[in-house]
Design goal:
single chain, 192 residues, alpha/beta, Rossmann fold, 5 helices, Phosphoglycerate mutase family protein, His_Pase_superF_clade-1
Length: 192
């Protein structure tokens, strides 16, 4: 039987324009949603949790890793698409850039890592983690943008924001051999 895997995007973050985005942590709401998920899931022995190295993903993964009895596995290259060229952007400007990022996957929009490059990176990182932990169900904690790019790859869809989550703190389930998506994006409150 093929092991299963879950990709979980971090929930709400504490936005600080003066702090680099990869260093942002979860907000009070994000921490509460993560704690409620951990309480609902209970025992995860037999699982492993793999996280991006960004603070918000680590804070999402740590309570889940505690349920496995194993340390959180950090894969730094699971980070969100590199947007350091523009840094923090107000909501409207960010959404316009994100739309362009998905609409032109082979273009570096205002210096951002292209969607195609980010997709190749996240697929490679997830595949490497699966190969390093064969036959073990995995939970990946990461980000919405690269999560959507991973989802598109696994589902055989072209890169498109059409397949994006509807907000932070969403998950999808896929076969750990990366052959299929078994459950599309859903709010973390539905994961049990």
């Amino acid at each position: 039987m093929i092991a299963q895997a879950i990709y979980l995007s971090h929930p709400e973050v504490e936005i600080d324009p003066n702090t680099p985005v990869p260093e942002w942590g979860l907000s009070g709401v994000g921490r509460a949603r993560t704690a409620a998920l951990a309480a609902r899931l209970g025992d995860l022995s037999g699982w492993s949790v793999v996280s991006s190295g960004e603070q918000k993903a680590i804070e999402t993964g740590e309570p889940l890793a505690a349920l496995t009895g194993k340390p959180l596995i950090i894969r730094a290259d699971m980070h969100e698409n590199d947007r350091s060229a523009t840094g923090y952007q107000p909501r409207a400007a960010f959404e316009a850039l994100a739309d362009a990022f998905f609409a032109q996957p082979d273009v570096s929009v205002q210096g951002w890592e292209s969607a195609r490059a980010a997709q190749m990176r996240i697929v490679q990182e997830v595949r490497a983690a699966v190969l390093e932990h064969p036959d073990i169900p995995l939970i990946f904690t990461g980000h919405g943008g690269v999560g959507t790019l991973l989802y598109c790859h696994l589902a055989g869809h072209p890169i498109s924001r059409r397949w994006d989550q509807t907000g932070g703190g969403h998950w999808f389930r896929f076969a750990a051999d990366m052959s299929s998506v078994e459950q599309g994006w859903a709010a973390m409150e539905t994961l049990s």
